[in-house]
Amino acid sequence: MMKFDTPSNLNKENQVDVILESFRTSFWLIEHQWFVRCHYYNKSLCLYTLPCTFAKSFQYLDKPFQSTCSNSTQLLKIHHIDVLFPCINLFWMNTFDISQLRSISIQIPDDFSIQSQLQSLFDRATNLYSLRLYSKQFSRHFFFDKITSQSIRRLDLRSIYLYANENICQQLCKTSLVNQCEVLLIHVENRSEILFLINHMKNLRALYVHSKDSIDQTNPYYTSIFIDELILWLKQHLPTSFAISPDEYFPSCVRIWISYVQFLNE
Questions:
Q1: What domain of life does the native source organism fall in (predicted)?
Q2: Which end of the chain is more exposed for a tag (fewer CB within 10 A), N or C?
């Protein structure tokens, strides 16, 4: 992938034509069947080969482009995207093939319903596995209580600025997405909510959880003693087949690996 700036007084479409012309030879198109695509926006041009897998979210997807391939939108292999809803420009959602999309991070504004847009995206992203949500007022609208996806199995709710209490956990467990969830990442108000989630999420196999009652309020960065105490408490209340340990990347969180074989027999 190449990104470069061009003089602002030049016609961008003409510039792109000149660049792409060198890639329209028989060497590129016939002998090797290599294709390129060029997006243009303000002074910037972005040129890359097709198909292309982006290592991270790609900011030019909804910008004008030209390509040496007549059906270049089908050659993009999009595995992850970051989305800010509402999507004013739905060009990328309606144009690009997102059937290979595996994970998505969605930032939700406080005062906007995104249910229809989100359902439309999930209907097309048939291999979507992981959903991460960002929101400041999650408790106001459980917008995904009617949202469905046949493929999502991992939910990351840690970036919601809210500790889930018993009432919120009850509402979550009534939704289709949470019922089918196998890996959940969440912040809870009390450790009792951890037991509630494990007992009510029948497909859950891994839980990454941060409990507010296991934080030193005078020094939230010092968590070792409190996490050790929480782990001991969990081991006393959960089957011995469960693997419980601190999260190596987030010391204030606990990882719980669930073994249903012994769980169902105890």
A1: Eukaryota
A2: C
- Same domain? For 64 and 86 the reply is no
Tell me which residue range forms the domain holding 10. Answer: 1-77
Distances from the Cα of 26 to the Cα of 49, 97, 117, 200, angstroms: 16, 27, 42, 61
In this structure, the answer to whether residues 225 and 144 fall within a common structural domain is yes
Shared domain for 237 and 110, answered yes or no, is yes
Q: Are both 9 and 140 inside the same structural domain? A: no
Q: Are 103 and 78 in contact (CB under 8 A)?
A: no
Whether residue 88 is found in the same domain as residue 204: yes
Number of domains in the chain: 2
In this structure, the answer to whether residues 86 and 204 fall within a common structural domain is yes
Residues 1 and 109 in one domain: no
**Same domain as 217, residue 127:** yes
